[in-house]
Structure formats: C-alpha cells, structure tokens
Write a structure and sequence with these properties.
single chain; alpha/beta; 10 helices; 8 strands; globular
Length: 294
C-alpha cells in the first residue's frame, strides 16, 4: 500500500484536523463578512498584502516524456506569467540524465525565470551530496526536500556541500517537528525556505504556533512558501506576511489554481475580495465541492 508514497507522508490525523480547521476558518471569515486574509491580518494588528508571490510546480516524470515536452511545459508557465518554475529530480536512472533535463529547462527559460528542483525526499545522504555537487553548478532558486523529512542530520550535512538555497518542511506536521528541524537540520535563515502546509499539519491554529517557533529561532515568516498550491495557504500568505505559495497551473484540478478572475503577472497574483477562503470564486472547484456535499 505504501508503494510510491513519499517518506514522512503519514499525516492522516493531521490532515483530517487541518481540513476541519480550514472549514471553520472559512465559515468564521464568512460570518464576519470579509476575506480570510483580512481577518488574519486584523487579528495581528497588521495590514494584509493581497499581492502574493507564486511559483509553478510541475516537471514530473511521465513515460515517453522527452526533453522537448518538458521544455514546452516550462515555456507554458512563463507564458502565463510565472517567474519561478519547479521540476522533479531523482527519478532518472542516472544523475547525468537529470543534469540534461535541468540544462534543457535552464536553456528554455533563460533569464525570464528561475528554476527550483524537488527530490521529494528520495535521496540518501550519498545521493543527496552527489546531486548537491552537480546542482551547485547552476543558479537554482532552491534544492528541495532532499531526504527523509525527519532525517535532520542528513539535511544539516547537505549545507556543507550546497551553498545555494534549500527548501524543506512540507511533510512536517507540527510545531514540534518544525522546532527540531530548526534546531538540528542546519537550515539557514538568510537563504533557505520552509514549506509547511497548513492543510497537512492540523490547520491554521497549528500554523500560528509554528510561526511562533520561527520567531523564537530568528526566522522571518517571509522565508515560508507553503507547499500544496491551495487557497487556504494563499490567504495565510497574504494575511500573515509569508513569502508566497506553491501553485499547480495544470495539475490536481480542480483543486489547483486560483479563482477564475485571478491572473499571474510577474510571478505574483492579487487576492480577490471574496468572503472567507474564496472557494466560490473558482467555478470548477465550487461545483466539485457542492457535488461532494450532495
């Protein structure tokens, strides 16, 4: 049953609580008659910034997917206004195959965008270091989730071999996990990124505790760019000053993407003034939700 499951992905209870928490906050903001981002900002005595950085996640491996198809996919994201794109690594048979994929994408995007790469927690230390030595030859946006998310020693060791930005945290489910990552994972607050996903980790209430831990360790919330590409994280990013959010322009529909009127411009979107989380603004998503509720 666990075939092809990402390491660390055992969050059944935390996801269930996170889902309920999301629904409660959506209802709370709707009762208040305001978008959730403004409700969150008001609770902290700050002003929400509705302009949010987003990047396009994709670059998956598919049978028969040649370099031309990968390049066309990335070009499509640029045409839609993205300035950072992300692709998978670690699924190739040899490291040189991934090097060719990376070089093909970098050639395609040129100076129009930056490239992030994501190993989905697949590497042991030896492989992670081998990739780090290869990847440091390129101007990447980040090197993501190299090994098992709870192997903090592996993550810490990598900082000795990879001077560029790294990212991890999407498969950590509590503020205690986050505290251990910051204590023992060698993450660097001047360049690295944290990807905690409120929908996977007990919801917004736990995310607020997580942000308190970050503050204790001297991290800015702007170093958080949540995983998941959903509108709950978008509201948190806009309301609490996070650094942005992942997005899936083509994948995981109708849950990926943004409300219908929202467009990506220069790598950012502007949150619409919709009450609550704003699910109703994405017509295919709200239709799916209503169908499930029947």
């Amino acid at each position: 049953m666990m075939k092809n499951e990402k390491p660390g992905g055992h969050g059944e209870r935390s996801v269930a609580v996170g889902t309920l928490d999301m629904a409660i906050w959506d209802a709370t903001a709707k009762i208040a008659g305001m978008p959730l981002l403004h409700l969150l900002a008001d609770s902290k005595g700050v002003r929400a910034n509705p302009r949010v950085f987003v990047y396009a996640a994709g670059g998956y491996y598919y049978p028969g997917k040649a370099l031309d198809a990968l390049k066309q996919e990335m070009r499509g994201y640029l045409r839609r206004g993205y300035t950072v794109v992300k692709m998978k690594i670690g699924g190739a048979s040899i490291i040189e195959e991934d090097r060719r994929r990376i070089e093909a994408v970098l050639e395609e995007i040129g100076s129009e965008a930056q490239l992030a790469v994501d190993a989905n927690g697949r590497f042991d230390l030896e492989t992670g270091i081998a990739y780090a030595k290869m990847l440091r030859d390129y101007p990447l946006f980040w090197y993501e989730e190299v090994g098992d998310p709870l192997d903090y020693a592996l993550q810490a060791a990598l900082s000795e071999f990879y001077p560029g930005p790294m990212a991890t945290g999407e498969n950590l489910f509590s503020h205690q996990d986050v505290r251990n990552l910051l204590r023992y994972g060698g993450m660097r607050p001047d360049r690295d990124y944290l990807q905690f996903d409120c929908a996977l980790s007990y919801g917004l209430c736990e995310y607020l505790r997580t942000l308190e831990v970050l503050e204790q360790f001297g991290w800015s919330p702007a170093r958080c760019i949540p995983h998941g590409g959903h509108q709950m994280s978008l509201n948190i990013a806009a309301g609490l000053g996070l650094g942005g959010n992942e997005s899936y322009p083509d994948l995981f529909q109708p849950y990926g993407g943004f409300p219908d009127a929202v467009r990506v411009e220069q790598g950012h979107i502007v949150m619409p003034e919709l009450p609550g989380i704003g699910f109703e603004g994405k017509s295919d998503l709200i239709a799916e939700m209503r169908a499930l509720a029947e």
